[in-house]
């Protein structure tokens, strides 16, 4: 990554956040950025100071006046007040005034334009701090944003039951269960390959037997001591997640600031980083599917009991465990967290047919490509059928649409 590439990437994320095209986590961590943590930090800090930066730019505009540059109107690369440069300018000015280095990295026309106005920007900042009667930069922020990282909210992650069970997901973050699983793998390896043997070295024949016996006893005792120490250390460690959420199934709650982006379960699609609020829609829809099937079964049983004996005999010939197909729609599916959640819940409903589908719509080709990739990673590509189309253009009288909920 070049010294200024993260400015462009942070500007891209901020522009999409403003257009409501995703959340900060999905836009950053589901991208192909090289240094995602740096981009995330720059975006988060620029958002915190967004109001302050807006005030400073207004003061700068008033102070220096707006004069058309010598370059053509089509070339806005060095224009601090052009709408095309809105977030890139703010990201760079944040780094210049509030960043740890108090400087702007890289080389660009826009950087040169900002550095030319550095004195005026610093003067505007001093005047604003004096007007607000504050002594530090952080005091310019709302109280809830002055702490490191803002409000301390818990981190949530959903266990993808299309790949692993809830118990397997919980055991992964339990030190005792991990230690037991490691011991079991070691036992199975030795059961297959035999016990580990010490490498022989050239020693006198007379002393080899006594030395090997003494070394074996000492090594075995040392191994037992190490094992006991490891178990003591393991028992002192706490389970890494705080709790299983009481409202959303298969959702684990972690302490604030817990970084799971590079965890093996996340990278292989078994654990999906998803906020609690975005999990409700899929669960409510899946629960309504289950309830509707229960009502249908109860009503059909009442009707069958009142029918004549000839009709009851014919009804008894039908399979009692009939599977019901009910397809569902995700009208604006990408990037796909809710879609994969709904797929996992549908797969866990006993009465749902294996032929049930989720028709996922998005009219953006890049966003639909992201959806396809994420459904494959989550193991939901068999259930989810991506459609490059606006949901509003779907024919409600189509044969496929009749099965949709």
Q: Any idea what the radius of gyration is?
A: 31 Å
Q: Any idea how many domains?
A: 3
Q: Averaging pLDDT over every residue, what do you get? A: 78
Unreliable stretches, pLDDT < 50, 5 or more residues?
A: 67-72, 198-212, 307-320
User: Would you tell me the structural class of the helices and strands?
Assistant: alpha/beta
Strand arrangement within the widest β-sheet reads 2-3-1-4
SSE layout and pairing:
Blueprint: H1 5-18, H2 24-29, H3 36-48, H4 50-64, H5 86-97, H6 109-116, H7 118-132, E1 155-159, H8 166-172, H9 175-193, H10 205-236, E2 243-244, E3 251-254, H11 264-267, E4 271-273, H12 280-306, H13 309-316, E5 328-330, H14 337-347, E6 358-362, H15 365-378, E7 384-388
Parallel strand pairs: 5-6, 6-7
Antiparallel strand pairs: 1-3, 1-4, 2-3
Helix pairs in contact: 1-3, 1-5, 3-5, 4-7, 12-14
